[in-house]
Design brief:
9 strands, 207 residues, Rossmann fold, 33% helix, globular, two-stranded antiparallel sheet, binds S-adenosylmethionine, alpha/beta
Amino acid sequence: MGRLNQTPILFRIVNKLTNVFLDLFYQGKILEDIIPRKHITSGKSTLHPPHSTSYFVLNQITKGVISKEIGFEMYNNFYDIGSGYGRVLLYFNRFFQKQALNYSIYGLELQEDIFSRCKKNTQKVKIEIINANALKFRFESDSIMFLFNPFDNSTLEAFVSNIKSSNKRICVVFWGHNKFEYFPQNESKLYKISKLESCLIWKNEIK
Ligand SMILES: C[S@@+](CC[C@H](N)C(=O)[O-])C[C@H]1O[C@@H](n2cnc3c(N)ncnc32)[C@H](O)[C@@H]1O
């Protein structure tokens, strides 16, 4: 969080306003909390109010080298791990339709109030929202899992270990500014997007 706060304030304001404008344009509603809410704790970890993935990030993933590396046509399930208010899900629903790709789309959200808002925001489209802990959830094979840095270190470590030991064919797309060392270095590729942000692609190719 500390490093992200080094992003110039003007850039953050413009980014936020652009996201709000694009939410209204594409989805007809704002898909993030404008008013900061209190952090809550669950078990050992502190959960933050969702900071939705920006459209800049989403466009980077669906275009150019990152999109080629993922190979969207090679999978048929998409999970947003920690789906927040549903921006990622709605964006990918449109993307898959445009590409004529037949995907099942799922959002996994731990916090009940956020889950309810996500369900409401996505009720007009065919997206399944699940109120569950990603650490205890059984995923389908042939899946893309998108993570916009939703976990603390120990949860991420446990999540990666679960996928490693599963016999599922999975492509993880992890966007963040640190924690890349938790993924198997020899099986993942890291794309530097800016001074602070990178996107890691890890394919667990077990068949
Ligand atoms: C940074 S937000 C991402 C929001 C969403 N992906 C988006 O871009 O619009 C992270 C979300 O992950 C959820 N989360 C945190 N730990 C989780 C877990 N163990 N299982 C499921 N969801 C979790 C949080 O409640 C929060 O809503």
